[in-house]
Amino acid sequence: MKIFTLTTIVLVGVISYATAQSQPPVEEAPTESPSPGKCYVKCITPDEFQDETVTVIVEPEYSVLVTYPATYKTVEDRVIIKEASKELRYVPAVYETIEVPYISKEEAQNLKVIPASFGDDLEEVETYPMVGRWEYRILEDCPSVDKEDCMVACYVEYPSKSETVPTQTLVADASTAPIPIPEENATYKKQVVRTPARMEEIEIPAEYATITRQVVDQPARTEKEVVPAVTKTITKTVLVNKGGMTVWEEVDCELVGNINLLPILYELNSARLTPESEDIIDEHLLALMEDSPALRIEIMSHTDSRGSDDYNMSLSQQRAQSVVNYLVNKGISRNRLVAKGYGETRLINKCANGVDCPESMHHENRRTEFRIIQ
Fold first, then answer.
1. How far apart are CA 303 and CA 315, in angstroms?
2. Measured between alpha carbons, how far is residue 264 from residues 268, 285, 301, 308, 326 in Å?
3. How many Å is the maximal CA-CA distance in the chain?
4. Of 155, 146, 370, 333, whose CA–CA distance to 258 is shortest?
5. CA–CA distance, 93 with 84 (Å, rounded to integer)
6. Which of 157, 178, 199 is the last residue of a domain?
7. Which parts of the sequence belong to the OmpA-like domain (predicted)?
């Protein structure tokens, strides 16, 4: 068992009876009569508060003004209901139709192709050249046994060979000849203004009527009424004893210095606690914090790697916060609890993004843990 000593801020201080037998003495002991195997956490006592009832004015005293409307009398007036004016009457333009000539198809020309013409001719082509070579012969009736004694060498020439090939010669190359296309004319009808449009001015006289109207006979007035104040009794929390004293809290040795699994099962993509999960929190955490009122606990929630990193981080924070909210509703002070979501940053197996794993291995990563931080 380790002894945790801190300098500036004390987070966790733990000592067990078995350790105290082999380690140097500390400034103070958790208890004068320790039992073997017991562990203690050095904590800072929290502030103590109590509720008081006070009466506050929620609505101040104020005045209400009661108004009495004005009274009227009826008078008659002759008024203009339609002013004199002038009416402008539009006289449309008068048109006549004329015919306008135009070129419907412009003059142009097409091109006629005249093909090339050819003449006949003959061309002499040498098909085999004139050659000469030595030829050897053996004389007939050679009296010598060695036939080479009767060998004769003769140089023979062979004339060249040729062939007459019929050919064509270009008499005139291909060319074009113009074919004229005459111009075509037509006419269209057009309406032109014979008499332009104009405006005629007509006088319209004014119209009158007699109206009745109400005028103030007596002006409105007000009277003042006082409405009393409204009060409300509320309960406020006041500081009774300032905390900060160092105390020792006895805890289970297995919880000290370790990250402890809280076997909570959440619904898919949800941070809501099930009734089974609430029973687990009551068993593992609520009793511990009620028995040791100076302990502070960190709730750590994790997800598997499925889903985006940002979504998993947010979901794990919501799940850790749901445990904190549940304990607060059970009477545990919120300043004794810390909620921290780690998403998929602390996987306990190989099932990271893109790794094919069975559901049982993903389930190992979907866990909630707690540790004592003070």
1. 8
2. 13, 12, 10, 22, 13
3. 182
4. 370
5. 29
6. 178
7. 253-374
Q: Are residues 354 and 343 in the same domain?
A: yes
pLDDT tens for residues 214-238? 898 889 888 888 889 888 888 877 7
Our CA angle for 15, 21, 25, nearest 5°, is: 65
CA–CA distance, 291 with 49 (Å, rounded to integer): 19
* 185 sits in which H/E element: strand 184-195
d(CA 81, CA 88): 21
Domain count along the chain: 3
Contact yes or no for 297/324 (Cβ under 8 A): no
Count of CB atoms situated within 10 Å of the CB of 328: 14
- Decide: helix, strand or coil at residue 363: helix
Whether residues 246 and 330 share a domain: the answer is no
The closest alpha carbon to 315, from 361, 362, 286, 306, belongs to: 306
- The reply to whether 141 falls in a domain is yes
Q: What is the pLDDT of residues 292-305, one digit of tens each?
A: 887 888 999 998 89
Stated pTM of the model: 0.39
**Pure H helices in 245-358:** 275-281, 287-291, 309-329
- Owning domain of residue 13: 1-50+241-258
The DSSP symbol for 330 reads: T
